[in-house]
């Protein structure tokens, strides 16, 4: 009798630990088990996120820039997140302190990916993960574009990723663009 109760408890426990990934028609969502999946927030809709980012593709890079005439990486991220009611800080260093740190293997669309000096753990760049190893970012050479995490320059400078949690971020709906 004890054995049956114990087995039943184990089955219930194992079933409750499984996290089913969301499936999207565009294939962005992680489809397997992901212990970080329950931390994903409602704003991770690939079509909406992708449409917002496409508004910025080709905008030239301008260090310190904050307009459609030119912007840097942190301004790009800040402007994308405005549609979700999140008023992010203006610099990549301050953005890197928001949310929770997550492993690279658990990335979901909308997570922020940070790059910089690996030896000093110093943040110098930020982008928005889009799925399938791609992220959107403002580059000095091509402005706002999609890049791949495995490109040698990004792979060598990858530091960490963070998942933004709504309660940690002040809300403001105006983008200023």
Overview of the molecule:
This protein is α+β, with helices and mostly antiparallel strands and 177 residues long. The chain has one domain (42-168): endopeptidase domain like (from Nostoc punctiforme) (endopeptidase fold (from Nostoc punctiforme), Alpha-Beta Complex), CATH 3.90.1720.10. The model is unreliable at 2-36, 38-44 and 167-177 (pLDDT under 50). It has helices at 2-17, 46-54, 73-82, 92-95, 152-157, and strands spanning 66-67, 70-71, 100-102, 112-117, 122-131, 134-139, 143-148, 158-163. It is globular and about 35 Å long. The strands form 2 sheets. It has a 6-stranded antiparallel beta sheet.
Q: How are the elements arranged and paired?
A:
Elements: H1 2-17, H2 46-54, E1 66-67, E2 70-71, H3 73-82, H4 92-95, E3 100-102, E4 112-117, E5 122-131, E6 134-139, E7 143-148, H5 152-157, E8 158-163
Antiparallel strand pairs: 1-2, 3-8, 4-5, 4-8, 5-6, 6-7
* Structural class assignment: alpha+beta
Find the count of extended strands (DSSP E, 2+ residues). Answer: 8
Termini separation comes to 68 Å
Query: What's the CATH C level?
Result: Alpha Beta
Secondary-structure arrangement, i.e. CATH architecture: Alpha-Beta Complex
Q: How do the strands line up in the largest sheet?
A: 3-8-4-5-6-7
Q: What is the C-alpha radius of gyration, as a whole number of Å?
A: 18 Å
Q: What is the makeup of the main sheet?
A: 6 strands, antiparallel
Q: Please state roughly what percent of the residues sit in beta strands, choosing from under 5%, 5-15%, 15-25%, 25-35%, 35-45% or over 45%.
A: 15-25%
Number of spatially distinct domains? 1
Mean pLDDT across all amino acids: 76
Q: What is the count of DSSP helices, taking H or I runs of 4+ residues?
A: 5
According to CATH, the fold-level topology is endopeptidase fold (from Nostoc punctiforme)
Please give the share of residues in helix. 25-40%
Can you tell me the overall shape? globular
What are the segments in which pLDDT stays under 50 over at least 5 consecutive residues? 2-36, 38-44, 167-177
- The CATH superfamily turns out to be endopeptidase domain like (from Nostoc punctiforme)
* Helix/strand order, N-terminal first: HHEEHHEEEEEHE
